[in-house]
């Protein structure tokens, strides 16, 4: 006997599967982990061709476990491993993923009942070519929005960890000797000798965690420097992109947010001699934004580092001009729209409160660039971060001599006059949410 529901169109419509897509739920921008080898006298060691010798950390028979915070949830997941900066093949012998156990004091602890082995093209191990990336096969795993997942990687043979993201806001990374990928926690094990400084907390190789989500989910990439990366935030959930993700989830908006900020990065110029600070925003826009799965929107916040030490017209690191920044932002807008992405431009936040950064000339460039951002019609929206964090501050001597007093970041919303604190990031994340989702929320505390 047929069920009555089978005869009713309304019932059959409700049972249709919802269209899905892969979207990046967490991700970070990878930088080079190579350093120049120095002799005891401090001079660079040269290779057989007379070039400075550079090396990345080499590991063997080591487990690397890393905890990251998702934005969107789903029922199937996969990971992305990067050897973009590698100069030789990288073999990962085993990989696993599990929900975090929810222990704030031990981010290595996993929900062992839901631990999953990962494969790559049906194989347990994967060798990633220099300059390449590997995506794992999807696994069934229910993960909640704003939850943590823990990824464990084992390297049986020699492996160079050439890719990393330098700045983390918690003790996210554990490295121990041997294959410990299935252990519930690594917190009580001695750290591996090959990576003795993991409490500096870099993320190695892990470039993204994707979830399968409803096709209407917006994929948002926050693209910028240390202010996007979250410098001075007290926890990963306190950066402005994390605040944006939390507000989207709290208000029922289907969205995933990836933080592609790199501390000390510039939009227009590579960080010569400082590989951990990343290639220029112009160079990495395709890799870190356009190529992310499911991306629909990008928020760009660059400029402070360029204004401080970018390359000037004579080729010296005295600060980029407003014209240089404008030309670069035009390029990003063009590329974003060519790939059918919405692009939102953030205004450069004030830095008059930091004596080592402020000068009348730099402030003039900031004001000119911000005014262009506000007036230019080529963006899908403008997020006036500068206005959101401006307020009363104690000016250093040079700024105090100016009349009128230059705009500064509010003392209540900054740690040192350049980077916001948790309160400042909350104001920025709330404003970003309002612009992207046409809302009118107020932050818990403003900056004025």
Rg computed from alpha carbons, rounded to a whole number of angstroms: 23 Å
The overall number of domains is 2
| CATH architecture label of the largest domain | 3-Layer(aba) Sandwich
Number of strands: 24
Helix tally equals 10
Report the sheet with the most strands, covering strand number, pairing sense and barrel closure.
5 strands, antiparallel
- Poorly predicted regions are 1-13
End-to-end separation in angstroms reads 69 Å
| CATH topology-level fold name of the largest domain | Rossmann fold
Would you state the CATH class of the largest domain?
A: Alpha Beta
**CATH homologous superfamily heading of the largest domain:** SGNH hydrolase
Strand % is 25-35%
Round the mean pLDDT to the nearest integer and report it: 94
- Relative helix content: 10-25%
Shape: globular
Structural class: alpha+beta
Can you walk me through this structure?
This protein has two domains: 20-207, no CATH class; 216-437, Rossmann fold (3-Layer(aba) Sandwich). Helix content is 21%, strand content 25%. The protein has helices spanning 9-14, 226-229, 240-250, 281-290, 304-309, 322-338, 360-375, 385-389, 397-400, 422-437, and strands at residues 20-27, 31-32, 35-36, 54-55, 58-59, 62-69, 74-83, 90-92, 94-99, 116-117, 126-128, 132-135, 139-143, 148-155, 159-160, 163-165, 173-177, 203-204, 206-214, 218-224, 255-261, 297-301, 342-346, 381-383. The strands form seven sheets. Strands 1, 7, 12, 13 and 19 form a five-stranded antiparallel β-sheet that branches. A five-stranded antiparallel β-sheet has the order 10-9-14-6-17, with no helix packed on it. The chain has a five-stranded parallel β-sheet with strand order 21-20-22-23-24, with helices on both faces. Strand 23 (342-346), helix 7 (360-375) and strand 24 form a beta-alpha-beta unit. Helix 3 (240-250) packs across helix 10 (422-437). It is globular and about 65 Å long. Mean pLDDT is 94; it is low at 1-13.
């Amino acid at each position: 006997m047929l069920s009555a529901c089978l005869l009713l169109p309304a019932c059959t419509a409700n049972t249709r599967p919802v269209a899905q897509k892969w979207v990046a739920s967490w991700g970070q921008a990878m930088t080079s982990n190579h350093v120049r080898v120095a002799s005891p006298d401090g001079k660079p060691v040269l290779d057989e061709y007379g070039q400075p010798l550079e090396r990345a950390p080499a590991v063997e028979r080591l487990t690397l476990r890393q905890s990251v915070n998702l934005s969107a949830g789903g029922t199937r997941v996969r990971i992305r491993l990067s050897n973009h900066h590698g100069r030789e093949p990288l073999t990962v012998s085993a990989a696993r993923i599990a929900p975090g156990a929810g222990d704030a004091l031990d981010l290595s602890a996993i929900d062992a009942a839901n631990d999953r082995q990962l494969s790559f093209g049906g194989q347990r191990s994967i060798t990633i070519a220099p300059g390449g990336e590997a995506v794992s096969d999807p696994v069934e795993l229910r993960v909640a929005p704003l939850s943590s997942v823990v990824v464990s990687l084992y390297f049986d043979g020699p492996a160079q960890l050439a890719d990393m993201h330098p700045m983390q806001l918690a003790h996210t990374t554990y490295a121990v000797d041997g294959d410990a990928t299935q252990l519930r926690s690594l917190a009580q094990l001695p750290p591996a000798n090959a990576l003795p400084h993991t409490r500096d907390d870099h993320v190695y190789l892990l470039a993204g965690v994707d979830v399968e989500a409803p096709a209407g989910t917006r994929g948002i990439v926050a693209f910028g420097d240390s202010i996007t990366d979250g410098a001075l935030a007290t926890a990963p959930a306190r950066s402005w992109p994390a605040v944006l993700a939390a507000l989207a989830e709290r208000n029922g908006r289907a969205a995933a947010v990836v933080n592609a900020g790199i501390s000390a990065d510039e939009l227009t110029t590579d960080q010569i001699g400082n590989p951990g600070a990343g290639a220029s925003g112009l160079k990495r826009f395709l890799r870190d934004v356009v190529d992310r799965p499911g991306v629909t929107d990008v928020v760009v916040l660059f400029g402070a580092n360029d204004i401080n030490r970018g390359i000037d017209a004579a080729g010296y690191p005295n600060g980029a001009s407003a014209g240089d920044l404008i030309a670069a932002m035009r390029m990003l807008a063009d590329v974003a729209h060519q790939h059918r992405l919405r692009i939102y431009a953030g205004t450069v936040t004030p830095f008059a409160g930091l004596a080592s950064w402020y000068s009348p000339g730099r402030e003039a460039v900031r004001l000119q660039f911000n005014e262009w951002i506000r007036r230019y019609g080529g963006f899908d929206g403008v997020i006036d971060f500068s206005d959101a964090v401006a307020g009363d501050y104690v000016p250093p001597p040079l700024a105090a001599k100016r009349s009128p007093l230059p705009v500064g970041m509010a003392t209540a919303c900054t740690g040192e006059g350049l980077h916001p604190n948790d309160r400042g990031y909350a104001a920025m994340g709330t404003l970003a949410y309002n612009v992207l989702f046409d809302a009118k929320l107020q932050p818990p505390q403003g900056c004025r």
